[in-house]
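Hi everyone, sorry if this is the wrong subforum. Our group has a chain we'd like a structural model of before ordering constructs, and none of us has done structure prediction before. Sequence below.
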Amino acid sequence: MSGQDRRAGGRRGISGDVWNALALFGLTALLILGSRWISPGFGGWSQAKAILVLSSFVVVVAFGQQLVILTGGLDLSIASVMTMGGVLAFTFIGASSPALLWGVPGVLLLTAAIGALNGIGVVWLRVPPFIMTLAMGIIVYGATLGLTGGTPRGQPSPLLSALFTADLAGVPLVIYLISVLAVLGTLLQRGTGFGRRLYAVGTNPAAAHIAGLPVRRITMMTYVISGASAGLAGVLMVGYAGGATLTMGQSYQLPSIAAVVVGGTSILGGSGLYLGAVGGALLLTTFSTVIASIGIAEGWRTVIYGIVILLALLLLREELYVWVGRLAARPGGIPPRSTPSTAMTGGNK
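Answer:
Right subforum, don't worry. Here is the predicted structure as tokens:
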């Protein structure tokens, strides 16, 4: 039985991963509505729209990160690759609209190539993902620093800025973009042969290899997609901020992992859904926005943020659903603790 089948928890029609994602969306909505207690200006569509825009970068980065984690890996080069993508877009695309047509694909190809190098190191050179991607992140950051001389120079692209300033039916265009990405990413995992092979590789690579699946190629492809996702997030950040810095990606390394894990993806691989990672990104961004508005010092905000992530992981564990289900099915309610004597003798015969 696969991890996803176990997570179904006996619910027919909707898998446990989808229920987990819906729970995260519901918690996000409740948190936004509850923020009215902090300020009367909160809890409305304007706040929800701002949170959706701010979470778009984590949503994009988490797409590639989640694919890597599904195979049991981890990509720690995301921050540096995102920075390089943003710096290149700011430097070479600039205010020229025609340059956007070749500039964005060029940036994505380059960052995908960086991801391919990560994949080569992990798959063929057998370097642990943690070490390989961390080293690649240092190399990429150093290359970006050398390219810019410490100060990125360029001009923001009006078309990229329009993704965040223009809207359709009162909704910023970037929200449509991440909505499409969420649907396509979920369909890729659940509705394609690549997605099914991906879960098989993450669940048991040895068994997948014996079954004839191209384990190395699938694993490497996840790192390629992760690199491209980080590059795209960097390009979008340039449109949002109107510029690029050498630290623009640092704030998204840990949130990309946290969103994926809070979204229900097993850090050991083989179980999870991108829709859950989207819900995790929305919930964490909402909470971060709310606690920042309270005026708490940065250090304590970080402590609270970490506690919330830990609580979310504990509350959304599969074992909790199983325990609640057994508790509901048990006539006597909470099962009694076994005494040492009964544990050793197996109880009264």
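For your construct planning: The two ends are 34 Å apart (CA to CA). Residues 3-325 form a domain with the ABC transporter involved in vitamin B12 uptake, BtuC fold (CATH 1.10.3470).
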